[in-house]
C-alpha cells in the first residue's frame, strides 16, 4: 500500500508563498522577452521597408542609365555618320581639285566646289 504524504496547512501556505513570486518573476521575464521580440520585429520591418525603397530607386537609376547609354550611342553613331559624310565630301573635293587646272594638284580652283 502506498503512503500518502500529508502536509499541514501551514506548510502548503508557505510553499505557495514561495512558488507564487517565482511564477510572477518568470511571467515578468517572459513579458519582457516578448516585448523585446516585438520591438526587434518592428525594427526589422522598418529596415526591410527602407531596403525595398532603396532597391526601387536603384532600379529606376539603372533604367535611366540604360536610357542615357542608348541616347549616347545614337549620338555617337550620328556623329560618326556626319564625320564620314564630311570626309567623303572633302575627299571628293580634293580629288576634284586635283583634277582642276590651277590648283595645287591641278591648275584652277573652283570656288563653288569648296
TrEMBL record:
Q: Report the InterPro entries cross-referenced here.
A: SNARE (IPR010989), Syntaxin (IPR045242), Syntaxin/epimorphin_CS (IPR006012), T_SNARE_dom (IPR000727)
The UniProt entry's sequence similarity note says: Belongs to the syntaxin family.
One GO biological-process annotation of the entry reads: vesicle fusion
User: GO cellular component terms?
Assistant: Golgi membrane; SNARE complex
Tell me where the signal peptide lies: none
Query: Which parts of the sequence belong to the T-SNARE coiled-coil homology domain?
Result: 24-86
Q: Which PANTHER family match?
A: SYNTAXIN, SYNTAXIN-31
**What protein name applies here?**
Syntaxin
SUPFAM superfamilies from the xrefs?
t-snare proteins (SSF47661)
Which PROSITE patterns does this chain map to?
Answer: SYNTAXIN, T_SNARE
What molecular functions are annotated in GO for this chain?
A: SNAP receptor activity; SNARE binding
What keywords is this UniProt entry annotated with? Protein transport, Transport
Q: Quick check: keyword Glycosyltransferase in the entry? A: no
